[in-house]
């Protein structure tokens, strides 16, 4: 046994030396399981709004342009929503546990999709990624709620047009166009060294995965040029492509955002000191002007016209861990945030999840719609494609 | 007592006995206590849903542990973004030397940066003290995969530590005495000592 292994034992033990007290986790599990059983009984009746707790309320938070909003105003007692008020539903569909909650208030029950993980709204329905026993699946759910398994493999990716999809399975990477529930124009390659699809850019498939030595590795495959050829591979992380697919955004060096040419993965310019972490996800706006970062610190919005020379955040909403985000249009971003009990005073329900809406035309205002903490199912906002 | 009440009572008994240990493993898998509680809650809900078919209570814990790990590795891909390297070493009551804490913190930071599956392998092998075969069963992968993931993770950690000026193979602080063989319950509780 080497010393690193011993050090790991010590480190793990030290990390859990103290832990928070748990309050009636058994009771909450029993209630949650009962709710899931109830939902399973009513699956198929998509028009029935299942009695999961969607409690909506709103609060506007004002901060100064160019500065993070005052954490106390967000986290203190005055930020606790008055849950007796109801606001309209968020302006994007939500994936909540095993159902899609539509903006019109109706619910699509995902009866067949195992462990829905994330979803995309397309012109004719939804694409839903599932976490399956041996990897990942992609399902198409039409507007009537009919669910069809499309592909399965280790990784799947969906293009911004909502048509092209890519997946990897058993060392092969495939890409195809989806027309309804059919796949056409399929192309396939091997030899990617375990890299699988994580996105699309410049007519190619962005590949990512763990390379030799365990480091994250990225490359591009251009199906129109034939089989995959090993490219320059590099970068600490590739975050996203812009809406037009002409540029990638990634992390290079310590905390530096890089704009990358997909063809050759060449860094065009970079900006450092943005507070990017391993958990940061990037969401470029449809018009290419903005990029939003969401992570444990919340959401930060950067103007891509100025960030390369003046990298200060244009708007920053902190104190809440943010998870997923989606642009409603060129000027409105919705992101999912997370509040904990100690952030909202005496509320007994446990973690709250909030859907926050921020407008790029009025950067000082953020509106929250709160999801009740009773429902502890995973939640994700569903971006609209195409 | 009807069947449902009896089942719930058994479940509550299991949770009372094992939830603290499961929470600690969850924390090591996801990196912060809030998400660890969410992960534990999801795990217990799935376990309760499966309670009837699990049969004997002795089979519950392996099932719960497997659900915990597979849920953590699937969440990681999209949902968990709570990791954040910290430059500040938190105060601890334990009488560690400062440099020991600094180096543990560095190692923990690098562990948190590992891909989810690699980290899960390390937690199962070096916190839960599972064998390679047991780890493979929990993760639902081949033993060879456990070996390769573990080797990659250790190589990555060695490289990261070396870059930071910490040589794991030579520093006494990172070469604590081998652990004694312990019973499974003691393994999970060892961190509280």
Distance between the termini of chain B: 39 Å
Tally of DSSP helical segments of chain B: 9
Uncertain regions of chain A: pLDDT < 50 for 5+ in a row? 41-87, 340-351
Return the CATH class of the largest domain in chain B: Mainly Alpha
- What kind of sheet is the major sheet of chain B? none
Structural category of chain B: mainly alpha
* Tally of structural domains of chain B: 2
Shape call of chain A:
globular
Give the helix tally of chain A: 3
Q: Strand content of the residues of chain B, in percent?
A: under 5%
Q: How many strand elements of chain A?
A: 28
Our Rg estimate of chain B from Cα atoms comes to 18 Å
Strand percentage of chain A lies at: 35-45%
What does the average pLDDT of chain A come to? 75
Strand order of the largest sheet of chain A: 1-27-26-25-24
List keywords for this structure.
A: mainly beta, 4-stranded antiparallel beta sheet, 3 helices, B: mainly alpha, Rna Polymerase Sigma Factor, Chain: A, Arc Repressor Mutant, subunit A, 2 domains, 67% helix
């Amino acid at each position: 046994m080497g010393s690193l292994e011993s050090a790991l034992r010590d480190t793990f033990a030290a990390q859990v030396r103290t832990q928070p007290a748990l309050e009636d986790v058994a009771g909450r599990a029993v209630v949650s399981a009962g709710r899931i059983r109830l939902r399973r009984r009513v699956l198929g009746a998509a028009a029935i709004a299942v009695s999961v707790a969607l409690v909506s309320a709103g609060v506007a938070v004002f901060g100064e342009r160019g500065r993070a909003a005052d954490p106390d105003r967000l986290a203190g007692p005055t930020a606790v929503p008055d849950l007796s008020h109801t606001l309209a539903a968020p302006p994007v569909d939500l994936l909540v546990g095993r159902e899609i909650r539509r903006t019109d208030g109706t619910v699509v029950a995902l009866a067949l999709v195992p462990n829905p993980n994330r979803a995309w709204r397309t012109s004719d329905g939804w694409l839903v990624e599932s976490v399956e026993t041996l990897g990942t699946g992609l399902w198409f759910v039409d507007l009537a709620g009919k669910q069809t398994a499309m592909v399965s493999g280790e990784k799947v990716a969906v293009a911004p047009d909502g048509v092209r999809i890519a997946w990897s399975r058993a060392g092969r990477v495939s890409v195809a166009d989806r027309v309804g529930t059919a796949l056409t124009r399929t192309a396939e390659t091997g030899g990617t060294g375990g890299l699988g699809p994580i996105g699309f850019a410049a007519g190619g498939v962005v590949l990512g995965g763990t390379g030799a030595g365990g480091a994250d590795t990225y490359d591009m495959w251009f199906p129109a040029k034939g089989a995959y050829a090993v490219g320059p591979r590099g970068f600490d992380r590739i975050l996203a492509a812009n809406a037009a697919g002409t540029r990638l955004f990634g992390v290079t060096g310590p905390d530096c955002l890089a704009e990358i040419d997909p063809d050759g993965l060449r860094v065009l310019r970079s900006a450092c000191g943005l507070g990017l972490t391993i958990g940061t996800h990037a969401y470029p706006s449809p018009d290419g002007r903005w990029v939003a970062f969401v992570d444990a610190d919340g959401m930060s919005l950067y103007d891509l016209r100025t960030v390369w020379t003046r990298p200060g955040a244009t708007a920053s909403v902190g104190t809440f861990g943010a998870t997923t985000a989606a642009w409603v249009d060129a000027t409105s971003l919705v992101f999912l945030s997370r509040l904990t009990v100690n952030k909202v005073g005496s509320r007994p329900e446990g973690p709250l999840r909030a859907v926050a809406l921020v407008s790029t035309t009025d950067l000082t205002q953020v509106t929250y719609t709160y999801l009740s903490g009773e429902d502890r199912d995973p939640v994700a906002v569903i971006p609209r494609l195409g | 007592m009807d069947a449902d009440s009896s089942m719930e009572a058994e479940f509550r008994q299991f949770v009372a006995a094992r939830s603290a240990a499961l929470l600690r493993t969850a924390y090591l898998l996801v990196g912060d206590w809030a998400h660890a509680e969410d992960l534990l809650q999801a795990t217990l809900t799935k376990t309760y849903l499966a309670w009837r078919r699990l049969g004997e209570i002795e089979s519950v814990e392996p099932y719960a542990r497997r659900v915990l790990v597979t849920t953590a590795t699937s969440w990681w891909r999209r949902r968990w973004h709570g990791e954040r390297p910290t430059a500040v070493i938190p105060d601890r009551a334990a009488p560690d030397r400062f440099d020991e804490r600094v180096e543990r913190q560095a190692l923990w930071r690098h562990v948190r940066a590992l891909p989810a599956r690699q980290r899960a392998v390390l937690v199962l092998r070096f916190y839960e003290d599972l064998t390679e075969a047991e780890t493979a069963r929990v993760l639902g992968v081949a033993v060879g995969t456990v070996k390769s993931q573990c080797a990659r993770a250790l190589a990555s950690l060695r490289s990261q530590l070396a870059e930071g000026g910490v040589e794991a193979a030579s520093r006494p602080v990172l070469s604590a005495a081998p652990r004694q063989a312990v019973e499974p319950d003691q393994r999970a509780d060892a961190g509280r000592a």
